[in-house]
Design a protein that fits this description.
With 85 residues, the protein is mainly α. The chain has a domain of 55 residues. Helix content is 48%, strand content 0%. Helix 1 packs across helix 2 and helix 2 crosses helix 3. The model has no long low-confidence stretch (mean pLDDT 86).
Length: 85
């Protein structure tokens, strides 16, 4: 091990940037999170991956023929998916 290291060209931030994904903060009900975590544990995937797939289903199809995604619609879709498991 060296006595000194040169960090003058060092950069802060993630080591590897994730492509195609954006980190956000979102507030979800505790029961929704717990249900997705339980479902993820039983299926062997991550709960965020499951939430992403449910949201993807909700927005799939032609955007022109669908109504805008509202909070009420999102909650309804999430509850339907949780009941299905």
């Amino acid at each position: 091990m060296r006595d000194e290291y040169d960090f003058s060209k060092g950069k802060r931030g993630p080591v590897i940037a994730s492509r195609g994904k954006t980190r956000i903060t979102i507030m979800l009900d505790d029961d929704v999170i717990e249900a997705f975590r339980a479902r993820a544990d039983s299926s062997g995937t991550g709960y965020q991956t499951l939430i992403n797939s449910v949201l993807r289903k909700a927005i799939s199809g032609s955007q022109e023929t669908q109504k805008p995604l509202t909070i009420a619609t999102l909650r309804r879709v999430l509850r339907e998916e949780l009941r299905a498991s």
